[in-house]
Design goal:
This is Origin recognition complex subunit 5. InterPro entries: AAA_16, ORC5, ORC5_C, ORC5_lid, P-loop_NTPase. Its main location: nucleus. The protein is an alpha/beta fold. It folds into three domains: about 170 residues, 3-Layer(aba) Sandwich (Rossmann fold), CATH 3.40.50; about 110 residues, no CATH class; about 100 residues, Orthogonal Bundle (Arc Repressor Mutant, subunit A). Strands 2-3-4-1-5 form a five-stranded parallel sheet, sandwiched between helices. Strands 6-8-7 form a three-stranded antiparallel sheet. Helix 11 packs across helix 13.
Length: about 425
């Protein structure tokens, strides 16, 4: 039984629309109810919000294109000034109407000009007989424009006296977009994040024709089991699924396993998925580089340019500061004398070890350290004498800005600032090398 029903549209069209927007049937059904029939006046403005990659833009474009509703679709990041935005809407309006003659470019400097030109653009019978939809993607960018732009778009139906609905798509809630001067309240609609079941259903639809749907669904299940806790972005998961599927199929291609040997397939793909987790969201290498790495069974560090973190370039003393910060974070204070003094005196051997020191310091995480301890370790590991100049202190601030160090507490502490080193052992090894 179809989930989408509306008397104004054919059932076959709605069935096709439902197949194009899996796991978003309730939101599409709500939008259809708000839109009503083609010739009816719809709600003046609709605000749709949700996290990135929750289907807002895709659902809106698919809905308008499938039902062949006249619409204008503009990205507010691309058209970042009010003049560019208003002129782009008018240009797209001219292409919507077959009766309107293609005129030369008309400048539109103010919203008053836009209202006048908008009325002229929708004067054709074709656009007057049905609702026109203006969709503004990344609508939170409207806050950076003139103060009257957002309130005017919310009341565009009233200002133009035309059958028009403005749809705002945003990644933030309406309370953060609402102007301080007050405005017409739009109808708000929330797009929740996809659940793991939704992601499984959507990703499984893209299975290659040479493999069965069950085989690809099992692969997606493994992929989500590894990445779901760290990545919920549908686009990123689609990229990872396409990138690593060839490695998953290797035992089947070589004849070492069949499609039902999930355990053997998992053992083959597990180390490669762990490597892929190191670069989730970062896009540090191209897809061709990653596929070449998988074919050669190499380590991620073997490819030049794979990790921006292991190839980071820092000033000379910043590298020593970072090494000193790592030593201060992971070594107890009582070991400084033994490690960093040449004539530290006699060290009494003892088998006594505190209970918490039996655990590796790397498992316990970095400990905070004061600034004077950081500088003391720096002076001991640098060969030549380093004066505590403003240059050294500015480099410490730069490391905090780069999030290689983190400041613990507040700047106004009387006993001086305290820091933590936030980088890994592999990073420090690469810097020290």
């Amino acid at each position: 039984m179809p989930n989408l029903e509306h008397p104004a549209y054919p059932s076959a069209t709605l069935l096709h629309l439902e197949s194009l927007v899996p796991c978003r049937e309730s939101q599409v059904s709500m939008l259809l109810s708000i839109f009503g029939e083609r010739q009816q006046f719809s709600f003046p403005s609709i605000f749709i919000y949700g996290h990135t990659s929750s289907g807002k833009t895709y659902v809106m474009q698919t809905l308008l294109n499938t039902l062949q509703l006249p619409h204008v679709f503009v990205n507010c990041v691309e058209y970042f000034t009010s003049r560019l935005l208003l002129e782009e809407i008018l240009i797209q309006l001219q292409s919507c109407s077959s009766e309107t003659e293609q005129t030369s470019h008309v400048p539109c400097d103010t919203f008053n000009d836009f209202v006048r030109l908008f009325k002229h653009a929708v004067a054709s019978q074709e656009l007057q007989d049905q609702t026109l939809y203006i969709v503004l993607d990344r609508a939170e960018q409207l806050r950076e424009m003139e103060a009257n732009i957002l309130p005017a778009f919310l009341r565009l139906q009233e200002l133009t006296d035309r059958n028009v609905t403005v749809v705002l798509l945003s990644e933030i809630v309406w309370e953060l977009c609402r102007p301080n001067t007050g405005c017409f309240e739009p109808f708000t609609l929330y797009f929740p994040d996809y659940s793991i079941g939704h992601l499984q259903k959507i990703l499984s639809q893209n299975h290659p024709p040479e493999y069965s749907a069950d085989f690809y669904a099992a692969y997606i299940n493994i992929l989500l089991g590894v990445f779901y806790m760290v990545c919920r972005d549908l686009k990123e998961l689609q990229h990872l699924a396409a990138l690593n599927f060839a490695k998953y199929c290797e035992p089947v291609v070589r004849g070492e396993a069949n499609e039902r040997d999930t355990r053997k397939l998992w053992k083959n793909i597990e180390p490669h998925l762990k490597k892929a987790m190191q670069t989730v969201y970062l896009r540090e290498i191209s897809s061709s580089q990653w596929e070449r790495l998988q074919r050669d069974n190499g380590e991620p560090g073997q490819l030049k340019g794979l990790s921006a973190h292991t190839h980071v370039e820092l000033p000379y003393y910043s590298k020593f500061l970072l090494i000193a910060a790592y030593l201060a974070s992971y070594n107890p204070v009582r070991t400084d004398k033994r490690f960093f003094l040449k004539h530290h005196g006699k060290i009494r051997k003892t088998n006594f070890m505190k209970k918490h020191e039996k655990t590796s310091n790397h498992l316990l995480g970095p400990k905070p350290f004061p600034l004077d301890r950081l500088l003391a370790i720096l002076y001991s590991i640098v060969d030549k004498r380093v004066a505590p100049t403003a240059n050294i202190f500015s480099q410490i601030t730069s490391l905090v800005t780069l999030q290689l160090l983190s400041m613990v507490g507040h700047n106004d502490q009387l006993d001086g600032p305290r820091y933590k080193c936030t980088v890994s052992l592999d990073f420090i090894r690469a810097i020290a090398r």
